[in-house]
Amino acid sequence: MPDEVLSQSEIDALLSALSTGEMNADDIKKEEELKKVKVYDFKRALRFSKDQIRNLTRLHENFARLLTSFFSAQLRTYVQITVASADQLPYEEFIRSIPKMTILNVMDISPLDGRILMEINPNIAYTMMDRVMGGRGESINKVENLTEIEKTIMSSLFERAFENLQEAWSSVIDITPSLAEFEVNPQFLQMVSPNETVVVISLNTTIGETSGMINMCIPQNVIDPIVPKLSVHYWMQNNNKKETDINSSRQLERRLINASVPIIAELGYSEITIEDFLSLEIGDVIELDNRVEDLIKVKVDHTPKFLAQPGKQAKKMAIQIFSTIEEGDEEE
Fold first, then answer.
1. Which of 134, 233, 159 is nearest to 151 (CA)?
2. CATH of the domain at 291
3. Does one domain contain both 52 and 93?
4. pTM to 2 decimals?
């Protein structure tokens, strides 16, 4: 970082403070030395930059919006899901931070290696299940005594919700999420080593009058293959590409608007024999299948598109459009 240039008034004020004893040169040196020291916790190794975490957060903000729409339709009640925070921490610390008994959904996300964990607070999970079964959405925390039917209902509901994760991640990679494991005790779940860095996206969830958290735990080995796509440069490239596509579409649209196509107004149709055709002379009349008062077909590039009436305008032959021929009308 280049040295800052002080103005003359700032230099005078600094010299005045040193001469009067308000500031001490030794204290200034010590303060500069302290600024060079930065505390670093090796147990909480930061594997990802702030930009990468920010872009992961953007992906899951979209995921939260999709979940809001999905659960609102499934539960037929007020649902609001938003991203509360995004942190990187050791897996062991994450496990200690969630309830001892909770709803844990482990997802396979092919083609990426590793698994993602979705932890749903029991109050939220039971409210969802109560609504699915026709109740008012009451929350009764009895996660230790889940029946097989309750497990099946919950796992089915959350497995369908995973489809929204596929759409949310589609801007980075095409994944196929599927439920691999359903668990209620975090101690029985060992996805990665305790010191492995994981990114935890916390979703603040409100269903009716019940509030709680949904936590997405994403291990480092899952994120590593897509790290280049989480950079600011990649996102800017994507935005530029979208702008280029839009400009190309507009340019194509302008060219299509100015393109010329042949228009033919058919007065009628008739069939004659070869003998009659060979004997035609000037002044002969061919009878058409249309009557004088009938509308005629107007073809655009040899395809019937309009029904019109022939006439004159400013001493020139013209047609007046009356209706449009829809697809399939021609056969009728």
1. 159
2. 2.30.330.10
3. yes
4. 0.57
